[in-house]
Amino acid sequence: MAEQLTAPAVKPANPNFSSGPCSKRPGWTVEALSNALVGRSHRAKPAKARIEKVIALTRELLEVPADYLIGIVPASDTGAVEMALWGMLGARGVDVLAWESFGSGWVTDVVKQLKLTDVRTIEAPYGQLPDLATVDTDRDVIFTWNGTTSGVRVPNADWIAADRQGLAICDATSAAFAMPLQWNKLDVVTWSWQKVLGGEAAHGMLALSPRAVERLETYTPAWPLPKVFRLTSKGKIAEGVFKGETINTPSMLCVEDALDGLRWARSVGGLPALIARSEANLAAVAAWVAKSDWAAFLAEDPAIRSCTSICLKITAPWFTALPADGQAKAAKQLASLLDKQGVAYDIAAYRDAPPGLRIWAGATVETADIQALLPWLDWAASQVAASVAAA
């Protein structure tokens, strides 16, 4: 980059590009929560009806099969995944896939916390996918559909056998509502309200196939289960969890916000429209990257690029010539400049990922805001390049 660029005249109308909690739906104001049943028991009929409505609208929008159970559980997507791991693993061998930090976290849980011995860890570096052909779906399989910290997604679930013997356990938190999920290939699917629909955090969602329910009812883990992880009672599935009777007390403000997001999603055209909005955002970034002389996708293969958590690496010579700590500092400086200008908040790469930028481009983000952001990225990069040259 030869010279410092002039700051663009137009800023994004909404500078919120955080990967979690994610941007609220277009037009959201706090008035959306005005009907929240605060001060009421979540077990009261009106409150329970609201919770049940969240489950029903979720099933409708995500096109979840009728024989799958859907429940609201504690501790966001992490809690939902943990419930599945602690309650179902140990019945057979496990393959754990990891190509970014959250997948690596599940490896730690399985190997170091549950201390299972028949475990195969199938890994790939940031920006790549492991060889999915090596996965044995007659074993239990744990994977993220979309790597939030790497910008890498699985292209499909064709690698999961229809006649598998194991369970396919899928952390789908930054994929649900933005990418098509092949439900017939998935037995446990988890996500949270804070991701693609921009809901408030703390609550996770858990969908179970009949095969997953069968595992819960026929297998007892060797370790004790905390109360918040228990999905069975006296050997049978705890059906109340999947009928609005949450294990712990949910925030009725968050429930109202989740309903608002779901209703908005339905109003714009449901799942096809949500996917199209996210893909349009990715296409806008891709068109810009194709002309950039300093930035590239962390995921080099277009087939596996995320349309929600878009991760960029800096390829300019002024950057690659820096030592590792200098690269980290320069990337943070770039993100900080955009923050100070009120152009983009929270877009530094995840702390464990290679230095760069991470732009959330899920369904609640307007393509016009992505397009307004891109010239500012060039401006910020030119400022940092000049700073490095002057140092």
The number of distinct β-strands equals 14
Mean pLDDT over the residues: 97
Oligomer: single chain
Low-confidence stretches: none
CATH topology of the largest domain: Aspartate Aminotransferase, domain 2
Q: Write the CATH homologous superfamily of the largest domain.
A: Type I PLP-dependent aspartate aminotransferase-like (Major domain)
What would the principal axes of the Cα set say about the shape?
globular
Description of the structure:
The relative contact order is 0.19. The radius of gyration is 22 Å and the shape is globular. The model has no long low-confidence stretch (mean pLDDT 97). It is 35% helix and 15% strand. The chain has a 7-stranded mixed β-sheet with strand order 1-9-8-7-4-2-3, sandwiched between helices. It has a 3-stranded antiparallel β-sheet with strand order 12-13-14. It folds into 2 domains: 30-266, Type I PLP-dependent aspartate aminotransferase-like (Major domain) (Aspartate Aminotransferase, domain 2, 3-Layer(aba) Sandwich), CATH 3.40.640; 270-390, Aspartate Aminotransferase, domain 1. The chain has helices spanning 45-62, 76-88, 101-113, 210-218, 252-267, 270-291, 317-320, 324-340, 367-390; strands at 69-74, 94-98, 119-123, 140-144, 146-147, 152-153, 168-171, 188-192, 203-208, 232-233, 236-237, 295-297, 309-314, 356-360. With 391 residues, the protein is an alpha/beta fold. α1 runs parallel beside α5 (252-267), α6 packs parallel to α9 and α8 (324-340) packs across α9. β5 and β6 form a beta hairpin.
